[in-house]
Amino acid sequence: MPKTRYAYDLPVHKVDYGVEVKVDDLRIDPEAQRTLNEGRAQSIANQLVREAMGSIVVSRRPNGDLYIVDGQHRVRVCRLLSIPTIRAEIHHDLTQAQEAVLFLIKNRESHKPRPLDEYRVGLTGNVPLFVDTDKVLKKHDLSIGSSSTNAVGAIQGVLRITDYYGAEILDRTLSIAEAAWGRSADTWDGMLIGGIGTALGKWGDIIVDAQLAPRLLDFGTAQAWRAEILSKTSRGGFKNSGTGSRLSTAYRLVVDAWNKNRRKRIEY
Description:
- The protein is α/β, with parallel strands linked by helices and about 270 residues long.
- It has helices at about 40-45, 70-80, 95-105, 115-125, 130-140, 155-165, 165-180, 190-205, 210-220, 220-235, 245-260; strands at about 15-20, 25, 55-60, 65-70, 85-90, 145, 150.
- The chain has a five-stranded mixed sheet. The chain has a two-stranded parallel sheet with strand order 6-7.
- Helix 5 (about 130-140) crosses helix 6 (about 155-165), helix 6 crosses helix 7 and helix 7 packs across helix 8 (about 190-205).
């Protein structure tokens, strides 16, 4: 099945580099920013090398207000140390949603934000990957957060399914998991969701959802699945190959469940 990859897009806009701005003029929009970690800011302040601070990323909104897009911990350090100015890269006339997208782009290859912050900011930015994922979760009466009966903790896991295979595959994945194991924190485990999603992403045109769910349950409960995956990976991967990750092990076990007693089998 074709893979779906989501891109972060921004309009062409004016950017000024290396501008010295007053720390007191900088604002924070909590809907387009990660959560401030005061301990991290204090740690940076204790070991600060001012010459290595670099530039923060700022959005100058149409009304002239300056909002931090990336660099709030460095700004907090400046306030802790009474440093009056900081160098900034200033982006002009972005909307709040576009600021959120810029934040995600800037952090894609640097210090990654917490998954929950990235998810929240992605929704603020109306980024299709996050919006499409959230629609599917809401359809299943699920939220993002600590794993529970009605919440999925494996944020990166569900985003990966949507990103690689599309929202329809995530929808099918959650339906199959619930049909097999009911609603529980173990049902939404990242390894299990990832294994089912990968199998559907690769073989979704062959696998019949209503047939896969009971086959998963025949193997055991969600807890039994988790235990088997962890056991196999701790022994060096699937079939002791030494290369199997938890996700690939879960995927292979799902394929095995589907193939059991079938003449026409699907391959790994």
